[in-house]
Amino acid sequence: MTPGDLTYLYAVRTATGTEASSVPGVDGERPRLVVEGDLAAVVGSVGASRFDEEALARDLEDLGRLESLARAHHAVVAEAARTQPTAPVRLATLYRDDEAVRRLLADRAEEFTAILERIEGRWEWGVKAYVKPTTRPEEREAGSPSASDRPGTSYLLRRRADRDRGERERERARTVADDLHRTLRTHAAAGRLFPLQDARLSGRADEMVLNATYLVDAGKEDGFRSTVDSVDGATVELTGPWPPFSFASLEST
Q1: CA distance 102 to 97
Q2: 241 preceded by a cis bond (ω within 30 of 0)
Q3: Domain residue limits, the chain
Q4: Please, which pLDDT band fits residue 103 given cuts at 50, 70 and 90?
Q5: Mean pLDDT in the chain?
Q6: Do the beta carbons of residue 11 and residue 17 sit within 8 Å?
Q7: pTM (predicted TM-score)
């Protein structure tokens, strides 16, 4: 660390081992460890002129620069998490020097230790489930009132039929999602639900009914995958295993 540098904090992990990460950091620097007791912070020394408050404000408004920072940040954390339980901190968390990071580790040692103990020996799996609509557009037309009906009556009947059909489909989707989530939780130490994605964002015609991530013990992964494979009534996308960032992020740091 040279005079004028700031300390960029990537993550907190156990102090076992000496290697922080083999990939370059957000400023091209080599990440290193700052150790305090049984905890270690994965940090990097970055230039103050490029990472002070004013420079960061500009960078975070530049989508290209923001993406570059996020990719580098994630790469360092993911590499550190390959060998040790690791809790990432939010993007662009900076301290004046290493001593400030040591004080952080000492002041919040109990909290950090509890998080690392929770994720040790566990991995994160993402699950997205989709269901097809029960009726196709042509079926809806076939079930609509005939043209011989009075216009006002026909319109109201169509509206009521569409509303009832939509409610039945939503109820079916909720049942599929609830059953799947409840079953997967029996194989996981924890689970988190996320907002459902609009079909225009997911790129699928089917309706998303579950968007979740699960914290799974390494020894229970086979059972978890088998449960996903046996789902009936939905198409399920499974991703992972990943470092358990959704269950370890130190957002308040």
Answers
A1: 9
A2: yes
A3: 5-120, 123-247
A4: very high
A5: 84
A6: no
A7: 0.73
Alpha-carbon distance 229 to 190, whole Å? Answer: 20
119-177, pLDDT tens digit by residue? 999 999 999 999 876 555 444 444 444 545 556 666 666 666 666 565 666 677 778 88
DSSP assignments along the chain, one per residue: --TTEEEEEEEEEES-SS---SS--TTSPPPEEEEETTEEEEEEEEEHHHHSHHHHHHHHH-HHHHHHHHHHHHHHHHHHHTTS-EEEEEEEEEESSHHHHHHHHHHTHHHHHHHHHHHTTEEEEEEEEEE--SS-HHHHHHTSPPTTS-HHHHHHHHHHHHHHHHHHHHHHHHHHHHHHHHHHHTT-SEEEE-PPPPHHHHT-SSEEEEEEEEEEEGGGHHHHHHHHHT--SSEEEEEEEE--GGGT-BTT-
On whether the CB atoms of residues 114 and 38 are closer than 8 A, the answer is no
Structure tokens at 183: 């079953």
pLDDT digits (tens, 9 = 90+) for 190-200: 999 999 887 76
Name the token pair of 102: 């040591």
> Closest by alpha carbon to 172, among 220, 130, 215?
130
Q: What is the pLDDT of residue 52?
A: 85
Q: Domain 123-247 class?
A: alpha beta
